Every structure is written in C-alpha cells, then in structure tokens.
Amino acid sequence: MKTRPGNIHLLKIVLMAGLTWVIGSCQTSQDHQHDHEVESDPHEHGPLVLSEQQFEALGMKVDSLPQRAMQGFIETNGQLTLPPQSQAAVTAVVGANIKSVEVIEGNKVNKGQPLAYLYHPNLVKLQTDYARDINQLDYLEQAY
Questions:
Q1: In the chain, at which residue ranges do the beta strands (DSSP E only) sit?
Q2: Interacting residues of 4 by C-beta distance below 8 A, sequence separation 6+
C-alpha cells in the first residue's frame, strides 16, 4: 500500500498530539498530594512544560511551518451552514422537469435573474391558455 505525502504529514501531526497528551498526563508524586486537597475542573488543563532534558530526549525542535503545495485531497464529512440573510428557498408553482440550470450553487444571483428553465406539457398548455385569455380580454375591452 502506498502512502501519500499528505498522509505522512497527517500521521506526524497525530503522533505529536498523542505524544503531547501522554507527556501531559504524567504526574509526579507531589501532584498527587495536592489532588486530594483542591478539587478542580477535570476539563481545565494548564500549560505543558518540558524540561530541557525532556525536550532533547524527544528529539524535538522549534521551527516555523513552511508553506507547501498540497498534492492530495483530504476527504471529510460535514455540513456548511449559512446565516439566514444569505439563504433562499426556490420552489416552482407547478410541477415540471428541469430543462437546464443557469446558476451554480454558491454563485451570487440578482433579482429577476433566471435560475433554471422548466419544461412540461402542462406548462406549455398553461402558457397558451394565458395568451388566449389575454387576447380575449383585450377583445372584450374593445367591444365594451
């Protein structure tokens, strides 16, 4: 099985986090005496302090994070939520098939901009009935 360069970096990060947790959970006998006297929040953690000898024994070094081009993908699961003022729901008044979608999800749209074109025989019938009724209304107004 081949490992990707991105997976190696992720593995290093996970190992460093685990090592930090193990070192942080080590306590001396003096700490045990104080545990019985003072009750503290179990979720409260102080800073992690290493002596110079511990730091050297672990082979640690301090450096800045370099910027690198990512060569792989990290697959994740999740859900992106937007504030209510940035969301909109779009529904069609009648049932129809989508002929084409004119915008891509996430693009900004303006009022009156077509989002999609719908097609269904019932829509064509509705449009022809509407055009016929408008013409009949114009004729009746002129006759009145």
A1: 97-101, 116-119
A2: 71, 72
Instruction: Answer positive or negative: Cα dihedral of 93, 99, 105, 109.
Output: negative
Please state the pTM of the whole predicted model.
0.32
Report residue 119: phi and psi, to 5°.
-140, 135
45 pLDDT above the threshold of 60: yes
Residues ≥6 apart with Cβ < 8 Å to 75: none
Give residue 29's pLDDT band: very low, low, confident or very high (50, 70, 90): very low
Out of 23-27, 50-54, 84-88, 103-107, give the one with best mean pLDDT: 50-54
Residues shown for the chain? 144
Q: Is residue 49's pLDDT more than 50?
A: yes
Q: Which residue type occupies 79?
A: Q
In the block, tokens 């006759």 appear at 143
Per-residue burial over 16-25, b if 16 or more Cβ lie within 10 Å, else e, is eeeeeeeeee
For residue 114, give every residue at least 6 positions away whose Cβ sits within 8 Å of its Cβ, in sequence order, or none: 102
